[in-house]
């Protein structure tokens, strides 16, 4: 069984960026086509984007608290900025919260909020990956992280609120950006400022994420999506056109792309943690904990269904000598080869586990003593014929075989009998198979019974 991979595919952000650009370019010839006002579309997309912003900011802030990497802190502030300006956009756009929203001082208030939202967000993402916060930057020590996070969040909120208040206070002195549904003036006034800022941010981010493997690499895709959002919005020239709807969809996508990458990364981390908890990383075999769980389940099933269960415990002979003479790398190669050899010598229903340094356990459901002896001899032969380092290394092992009996009170007693048979195999010359003798039914009770004094 292979170890789950943690690395996100390196070209994935590039492919995603190219796909977004390609779709945007494909839609641009029809960007100005009017589709009519969809009353529920904008509240739906803004609500989804707000949820994405909140979750992204929270997860990135947690990453900063865990690692002290200030790039995560600035990214969290970018999503907090997006949330604030997107909220202001919603309170300035007629028909979202009410027909006369509180921030709709003029008809151009919503476009100004839109530009501040779609320019400030990528600028902060680009700032997070600038050379001033590169991989060699000093990380924040743990006692100061929470204070710095609180200060940065407070500063972001203060700047956001000040920006919104300044726009509202000077709304009647600002150029009019929209006439009816015509947004041509929006592109003429804000495009020469907004587009270069986003492009510069994209360059900083693209350079900064080189060599990184985590979900933060997808910040460059978020900036590309913001850039495409601005371009297709400017190109549409009208509200409620195909380009306008595509832009709002892209805005929602830009808020969620890093979040989706983080959630995918967490899923991979969870899969890896579960693998590490149940499997040996060197051989890929189940570990002691997993073997114990399987043995307990098979023992219970055998008792309930009245079916057979046999164990093979085996230990490599003179394994320490291999490590001492050839090095630990050779010892690891032997263990990996043993794991591969035993997997090919058992049935799919059988379980082979590495339970110690050079100790292994094979669980054989529905197998008798004779079946287990045949498998043990097959394993013994397979190990002796391994040839992967040199002719001087001959791998042998000692095997102990035990079958579940009525006298076994639990799975642990069955395992102890297999261990005793293994020790007997080692004591009598190694490289052999020893079967544990049958135990009388009353033996476990007699062993724990208190001695009786005769009068």
Can you offer a commentary on this structure?
The protein has 455 residues and is α+β, with helices and mostly antiparallel strands. It is built from 14 helices and 5 strands. It has a 5-stranded mixed β-sheet with strand order 2-3-1-4-5, sandwiched between helices. The longest helix is centred in the middle third of the chain and has 37 residues, at 242-278. The relative contact order is 0.10.
Give helix and strand order, one letter per element, not per position. HHHHHHHHHEHHEEHEHEH
What would the principal axes of the Cα set say about the shape?
A: elongated
Q: Which spans have pLDDT < 50 for at least 5 consecutive residues?
A: 4-9, 442-455
Round the Cα radius of gyration to an integer and report it. Answer: 34 Å
User: What is the CA-CA span between the terminal residues?
Assistant: 64 Å
Mean pLDDT: 88
Oligomer: single chain
Instruction: List the total number of helices.
Output: 14
Give the tally of β-strands: 5
* Largest β-sheet summary: 5 strands, mixed
Helix content: 55-70%
SSE class: alpha+beta
Range of strand content: 5-15%
Strand order of the largest sheet: 2-3-1-4-5
Topology:
Layout: H1 12-27, H2 41-67, H3 70-90, H4 109-128, H5 142-169, H6 184-208, H7 219-236, H8 242-278, H9 288-305, E1 309-316, H10 319-326, H11 328-343, E2 351-354, E3 359-365, H12 369-384, E4 397-403, H13 411-427, E5 433-435, H14 443-448
Parallel strand pairs: 4-5
Antiparallel strand pairs: 1-3, 1-4, 2-3
Helix pairs in contact: 1-7, 2-3, 2-5, 2-8, 3-4, 3-5, 4-6, 4-7, 6-7, 7-8, 10-11
